[in-house]
Design brief:
heterodimer; A: 294 residues; mainly alpha; two-stranded antiparallel sheet; 11 helices; B: 346 residues; ABC transporter involved in vitamin B12 uptake, BtuC; two-stranded antiparallel ribbon
């Protein structure tokens, strides 16, 4: 194993890590605001990629960026609709009902994908194709660098929005307490729907960058969903910096793990990480001591 | 008061109710005993057995999810672990059947207890994540370690290896009675647990963990017990699955199957034991006998989960109450939550 190979693995792992961070961030985001672990997150991501790549780009011949925008819009609308109908109705029910509802949504989405697009995997070469960049004699896939750049950019923009805008302030208030937020005059259902839709759009962005690295089929949502949950658990459930750190850690460990145990156990590495973290340090790396949220 | 079928508030009288329950139970028992005689085709009998196996797993899952409020996404993991343990012990290692069954059940129970303990050291729905993750690891190991599990080709139990119980070959017709027996015993056991102190502590933990703790309930212990009961029920289903199909493949024990169990429990009514059985039968039998819906079945399940949660949060299990209400003189209002409300007399 020479050093150029190691660098390639490192870049790919960081690209994966950024993607997992986005997925995990969305999950934490929904957990902190709506108060639900969203088990449809990975499936929504898959749906977005199918819409953008297979439907709008390949079938309708839209440019890929327009297809991506269209798919993200559809994801946002689904998120808003689901939040306004289901979560709104279940507002006073225990968390259990809401979580089961997200599983119902996941079941619907994944089987609709299977029905409409079939089970065979689809290829998508990405925004930049298979172009390589040569840095000091080491070749790196441009797509990986793009994924890395875009995820870092999105994370930075998210951070700025949270810190400096009114919307960010409102969302932080709701994450602290929905009841108090409502008493302060925040139109809570509208903002919760917005937060849910925003998190789903983040997943959609992540999906557009993960598919060129792996491939696209209806089980993608399961695999990426696990990685998102792994990022969340490793970082500490409920912690936003934790989810980002966790995502990168999961990506890196997965890269190393593939080198060590081989690629057929790739998806089990994140799962094993969840178990190990819960055994050794249940509250995660950056988790608060009390993570309950009812 | 004898001769009146309803009491003052319009409910059915106790005598009529007892007669009704006895008649129903009697008819059910006759039907259960008669099924293997009437159903000549093995294929259909096997589907009925499969529905009962699913009922057992769903009953167990309902203990974790519906009664104790623990979101468990690994019911197919527990069933798979015990099924594979049994198949590997008896087929690969040539161990005798009865100790192997015991070992398989213990393994499922220990795994359930371990995951329950591990996930509940912090408050929060960690159990959902750990069961999902462990199920994934299990699925990958089972599909890749061909030397042990046969990989995607699965493990077959050849006819020569089928066990004998008291000298009778355990073929499908015998398995049917075993499964009926197991379902009845586990159902009654479930009701006993539900009404016992343990069951009450489960419900207390589900409804308000903090208050339950203040009442002196060891909430961690209650949650671990709920997970253990859940996984042992799944283990029984897994063991009987091996005897029913004599063939195991990883594809039977996926996350999708766990979601189907969850659909059975939700559609039947969270926390409602009769509902779990009804839900399991509905979810298993409808696609078999209504071929039109087969391709869309999982979508229909997803939509049904949402509809049940939004429209009848109590699920299918409240149908018996509904029937009783139809026969009562004074109709109760059915609220949108699915609860009955008998208006007070003016």
């Amino acid at each position: 194993m020479d050093s150029s190979y190691a660098v390639q693995v490192l870049v790919a792992s960081l690209a994966f890590g950024g993607i997992y961070s986005l997925v995990g961030l969305g999950i934490v985001f929904i957990w902190r605001t709506v108060g639900v672990l969203n088990f449809a997150h990975g499936h929504l991501l898959t749906l977005g990629v199918y819409l953008a790549v297979v439907w709008l780009y390949q079938r309708w011949g839209w440019p890929i960026w327009a297809g991506t925008m269209g798919a993200l819009l559809v994801l946002a609308l689904i998120g808003i609709a689901f939040s306004r109908t289901v979560f709104e109705r279940l507002r006073n029910q225990p968390m259990l009902s809401k979580v089961v509802a997200t599983m119902g949504l996941g079941l619907i989405i994944v089987n609709t994908i299977l029905l409409v697009f079939g089970a065979s995997p689809r290829a998508f070469t990405g925004f930049l194709g298979r172009r390589m960049l040569w840095v000091g004699g080491i070749g790196v896939l441009a797509e990986h660098l793009l994924a890395l750049g875009v995820t870092v950019f999105v994370l930075l923009v998210m951070g700025l929005v949270f810190r400096y805008t009114m919307v960010g302030k409102v969302i932080r208030a709701l994450a602290y307490s929905r009841e108090v937020g409502g008493l302060m005059g925040i139109p809570v259902p509208r903002y919760l729907a917005g937060a849910f839709a925003g998190a789903v759009v983040l997943a959609g962005v992540a999906g557009m960058f993960i598919v060129p690295i792996t491939f696209l089929d209806f089980t993608l949502g399961d695999a990426v969903g696990y990685k998102g949950f792994a990022a969340v658990v490793v970082g500490g459930l409920g912690s936003i910096p934790g989810a980002i750190l966790g995502g990168y850690l999961v990506g890196l460990l997965e890269g190393i793990g593939v080198l060590v145990v081989g690629s057929h156990y790739r998806d089990a590495i994140a799962a094993a990480l969840i178990v190990v973290v819960l055994l050794l340090r249940p509250r995660g790396l950056l988790g608060e001591r009390e993570v309950e949220r009812l | 008061m004898i001769g009146r079928t309803t009491n003052r508030s319009g409910q059915l009288g106790p005598l009529v109710k007892a007669a009704f329950v006895l008649l129903t139970l009697g008819a059910l028992l006759v039907a259960l005993v008669g099924v293997p005689r009437w159903v000549k085709v093995d294929y259909y009998l096997r589907i009925i057995v499969y529905a009962m196996l699913n009922s057992i797993a769903a009953l167990g899952l309902n203990f974790a999810v519906g009664v104790a409020g623990q979101i468990n996404l690994g019911q197919s993991l527990f069933a798979g672990v015990s099924a594979y343990a049994l198949a590997i012990l008896t087929q690969r290692l040539g161990a005798p059947w009865i100790p192997s069954v015991a070992a398989a059940l213990v393994l499922a129970g220990v795994l359930g207890a371990g995951l329950g303990w591990m996930s509940n050291r912090l408050r929060g729905p960690y159990l959902a994540v750990t069961t999902l993750a462990t199920a994934l690891i299990f699925y990958m190991v089972v599909s890749h370690e061909v030397w042990l599990t046969g990989g995607p080709m699965g493990i077959r139990v050849p006819r020569a290896n089928v066990p004998r119980l008291f000298g009778i070959l355990v073929d499908l017709r015998v398995v049917y009675y075993l499964v009926v027996g197991a379902l009845l015993i586990l159902f009654v056991l479930g009701r006993v647990i539900y009404r016992s102190k343990v069951g009450r502590s489960f419900r207390a933990v589900r409804d308000d963990e903090m208050v339950a703790g203040l009442m002196g309930i060891n909430t961690l212990q209650a949650k671990v017990w709920a997970c253990t009961i859940c996984s042992v029920y799944a283990g029984v289903a897994g063991v009987l699955y091996v005897l029913t199909y004599r063939f195991l493949a990883p594809v039977e024990f996926t996350a999708l199957q766990s979601f189907r169990y969850l659909a059975m429990v939700t559609i039947g009514g969270l926390g409602n034991l009769v509902g779990s059985v009804l839900g399991a039968f509905a979810v298993t039998l409808i696609p078999e006998f209504l071929r039109v819906v087969q391709g869309y079945w999982d979508i229909i399940l997803g939509v049904s989960i949402l509809l049940v949660l939004l429209v009848f949060p109590k699920g299918l299990g409240f149908l018996p109450d509904y029937m009783a209400q139809l026969m009562a003189k004074r109709k109760a209002e059915v609220r949108w939550t699915g609860e009955f409300h008998v208006p007070k007399s003016p």
